[in-house]
Design brief:
By secondary structure, this protein is of the alpha/beta class. It has helices spanning 9-14, 35-44, 47-51, 54-67, 81-85, 107-112, 118-121, 123-136, 154-163, 171-179, 181-205, 224-239, 262-266, 281-288, 307-321, 341-359; strands at residues 4-5, 73-74, 90-93, 97-100, 142-143, 147-152, 209-214, 243-244, 247-248, 251-255, 272-274, 293-295, 327-328. Helix 2 runs antiparallel to helix 4 (54-67). Substrate binds at residues 28-32, 78, 160, 215, 333.
């Protein structure tokens, strides 16, 4: 059966095509701020029990779409699935976040790293992608919104792999970077090959856009960022399938704290660059010209303000970008677990309402 995408606004915006309004989705839109998510997670027994079960992953992916008129779904998963598939022993410790039982610290650890067999180790992810696509599509082949697949960037994955979990200062991974850059480059090359294979498997399974989260790129110094983060993100982008079933598959990358390097990120070959809330969208658009779309960039803490203030801040973001094609509205980072759902409803409503006004003929 031929499939019809009922709402392709998000995909058209990524390709800088004119749209009637600015599409919106939210990083971590399926998450702990939603009571229905918490109920599903409780049934799953743990975060990994949720993420590794395609039925649960499908359920929580669709929950924000059932509550808000968002313009894209994003696969429910975690950025650490790839190093987990490498055998590093991922666990989520209550109050501490992700932990690896076997961090990569020594020359022997690095030598053992290999690109995982995606089909054997990450089949639960590609099964979830297929299942979510089916759940988004009605009996007549009409799909509600596009599905985004994603991965962590090679550098961001390396941070967790070497540190053994999260970090405030990245002392261990940066020490390796400066003392043994050869080891770090070996890790990053394996990661880049793995991420490319992983995202291509998601595209084959039905992801209609993919995003690379370089969450910790901004922790690097200028020069080190280009060598140890951007270079390997570009390696991933160059290896991606950019078309599936005759349809373009856009690629987004997001470096938190990466505003300094916006021009260089735009030159990697991606279709869109996500920016955090420290970036002026108007100036960013002038810098990248017509090379890429931009995604962002409301400060997530705005969503704790009264709804009138939320709406005003949303309009300020839209005004900053202007009525030009190539903008996807998002937060400048993931949504907080403490965010009131009614605040999200107000945000989505205002982005859709006001962007239509901005783009109206004669506006």
């Amino acid at each position: 059966m031929a499939h019809t995408l009922l709402n392709d606004t998000f995909l058209r915006a990524l390709l800088r095509e004119p749209t009637e309004y600015t599409p919106i989705w939210l990083m971590r839109q399926a998450g702990r701020y939603l009571p229905e998510y918490n109920a599903t997670r409780s049934r799953a027994g743990s975060f990994l029990g949720l993420a590794k079960n395609p039925d649960y992953a499908t359920e929580v992916t669709l929950q924000p779409l059932d509550r808000f008129p968002l313009d894209a779904a994003i696969l429910f998963s975690d950025i650490l699935t790839v190093p987990d598939a490498m055998g590093l022993g991922l666990d989520f410790v209550a109050g501490e976040g992700p932990k690896f039982a076997r961090p990569v610290r020594t020359e022997e650890d690095v030598a053992r790293l290999a690109v995982p067999d995606i089909d054997a180790t990450l089949r639960y992810v590609t099964d979830a992608v297929r299942q979510i696509r089916r759940a988004l599509t009605d009996g007549e082949g009409r799909q509600r919104v596009p599905l985004i697949g994603f991965s962590g960037s090679p550098w961001t994955l390396a941070c967790y792999m070497v540190e053994g979990g999260g970090s405030d200062d990245f002392r261990t991974v940066k020490s390796m970077l400066y003392a043994r850059p050869d080891l770090m480059e070996r890790i990053l090359d394996v990661n880049a090959q793995s991420v490319a294979a992983y995202l291509n498997a998601q595209i084959d399974a039905g992801a209609q856009a993919v995003m690379i989260f370089d969450t910790w790129g901004g922790a690097l110094a200028d020069g080190a960022y280009q060598r140890f983060s951007l270079r390997y993100t570009a390696q991933v982008v160059a290896a991606l399938k950019r078309e599936h079933d005759g349809v373009r598959v856009p690629v987004i990358t997001f470096t938190k704290g990466g505003g300094l390097w916006l021009d260089e990120i735009a030159a990697t070959g991606v279709d869109a660059v996500g920016v955090d809330w420290t970036v002026n969208l108007s100036k960013a658009r002038e810098r990248v010209g017509g090379r890429v779309a931009l995604q962002g960039n409301l400060d997530p803490t705005v969503l704790f303000a009264p709804q009138d203030a939320i709406r005003a801040e949303a309009r300020a973001v839209l005004d900053s970008f202007g009525p030009h094609p190539g903008h996807v509205f998002n937060l400048g980072h993931g949504i907080s677990q403490f965010t009131p759902p009614d605040s999200v409803a107000a945000l989505v409503d205002e982005v859709h309402r006001y962007s239509r006004v901005l783009r109206a003929p004669g506006a």
